[in-house]
Write a structure and sequence with these properties.
This protein has 270 residues and is α/β, with parallel strands linked by helices. It has helices at 3-19, 67-70, 118-123, 131-141, 181-189, 215-220; strands at residues 37-40, 60-65, 74-78, 86-88, 109-116, 128-129, 149-153, 178-179, 198-201, 226-229, 242-246, 256-258, 261-265. The strands form 3 sheets. A 9-stranded mixed beta sheet has the order 1-13-11-5-7-9-10-4-12. Strands 2-3 form a two-stranded antiparallel sheet. The chain has a two-stranded parallel sheet with strand order 6-8. Residues 1-27 form the signal peptide.
Length: 270
């Protein structure tokens, strides 16, 4: 069996195993691919609505061929690798860490949990998720599985395409919620992020917008850990039991990729 198929099969077995209460993946019946549900977690890339991170190149789409004139339709795309919904590779922030073409397919297919911090983020756009927040979530939903992507639902996905998404202050500083440094260090130290887990968010970054040193990103982006950013439709991602699958072009020495990111939901998970 080709390597990519083996990775996918192993991942799908993990999906089914995670959905079974008290049963191991080895005891699970064969995975039925037609019983998996996919939900899109990506915004549509549209220059008219895409919020671009300050300093990144402008996003442009130009029609360069039409069916009446050329017999086919084609657009020319110009954008940074982290435009719109995207995933980032460890080498995006850390010299010597893997870049996009050095990751394995399994690095982009991970179990996921969703932590709803919309109320706190609405009250404080600079809110930084704490260790206590994570422990309170685990008390209700159980331990975060090892090597998971921990997704923050801040409510920023509803602000996409408006000035409220970057939420830039008069001083030019972004005001967006994210993880506190101690919270991410705890996720790493306790093995919850592991070697190939990561973070996800509906904002520009796992960092709070006011941290212009990207301290959280530098911690997350190590080993084979990734960050999923500017996620959409997080209402459709279950709190537990789903996986995330990140696609997109793999550029040579890429910092990541503009992506179509799916939530993969086993039968019975909603």
């Amino acid at each position: 069996m080709p390597m990519r198929r083996r990775v996918l099969a192993a991942g799908l077995a993990g999906v089914f195993g995670a959905a079974l209460s008290g049963r191991t993946a080895q005891a699970a019946p064969p995975v039925r691919l037609d019983q998996l549900n996919l939900v899109s977690l990506s915004h549509v890339n549209d220059p008219a609505t895409t919020n671009v991170f300050p300093g990144d190149p402008a996003f442009e789409l130009e029609t360069i061929a039409t069916i009446p004139q050329d017999g086919y339709y084609l657009q020319y795309v110009r954008e940074g690798e982290h435009t719109g919904t995207h995933w980032g590779a460890p080498g995006h922030f850390n010299t010597g860490e893997p870049l996009a073409d050095e990751l394995d397919p399994g690095d982009l297919f991970r179990p996921a949990v969703k932590i709803d911090v919309r109320a706190k983020a609405a009250a404080n756009p600079d809110y930084a998720v704490t260790i206590d927040d994570l422990k309170a979530w685990e008390k209700r939903h159980g331990r975060i599985p090892a090597e998971s992507v921990v997704v923050l639902w801040t409510g920023w996905d509803a602000k996409w395409g408006t000035p409220a998404f970057p939420n830039t202050g008069a001083d030019g500083v972004l005001h967006q919620p994210g993880f506190s440094v101690p919270a991410v260090q705890w996720l790493i130290d306790t093995g919850r992020l592991g070697r190939r887990g990561g973070t996800g968010t509906d904002t520009f970054s796992p960092d709070v917008g006011t941290d212009e040193t990207y301290t959280v990103s530098k911690l997350v982006y190590r080993r084979h850990r990734i960050s999923l950013e500017i996620l959409a439709n997080l209402a459709a991602l279950p709190t537990t039991g789903a996986w995330v699958l990140a696609g997109g072009p793999i550029n040579r020495r890429g910092a990541g990729s503009t992506a179509t990111i799916f939530g993969v939901l086993p039968s019975g998970v909603s």
